[in-house]
Amino acid sequence: MPTVLPGTRLYEGYLPALVREVDTYFHSVSSLTRQKITQDEALINHFPDIFSSFYNLPCRALPLAALHQIVSFFRW
pLDDT by residue (tens digit) across 23-75? Predict the structure, then answer.
């Protein structure tokens, strides 16, 4: 699942379409912590243009939850 970073083509082309259906970012930082902080969530939700890496591109082929489950089998 791609990470949408500011200044990239994904960011420029898809920012209005980004969604937060699955939490791929917090899932991937399991070596640090899986704990979510309420204040962090509020900032991420209020400023999607700054925190675009916490969002996902919608997928027509499969629901994001299904894609997230598939990706979880391929941990580095």
Answer: 655 544 444 555 567 788 888 889 988 888 888 887 777 777 777 777 777 76
pTM: 0.60
- CA 76, 64, 43 angle in degrees (round to 5)? 85
Show me where the domains of the chain are located. Answer: 9-71
Distance CA 44, CA 72 (A): 23
Separation of alpha carbons 13 and 33, rounded Å: 31
Q: Are 43 and 51 in contact (CB under 8 A)?
A: yes
Structure-token pair, residue 18: 């980004």
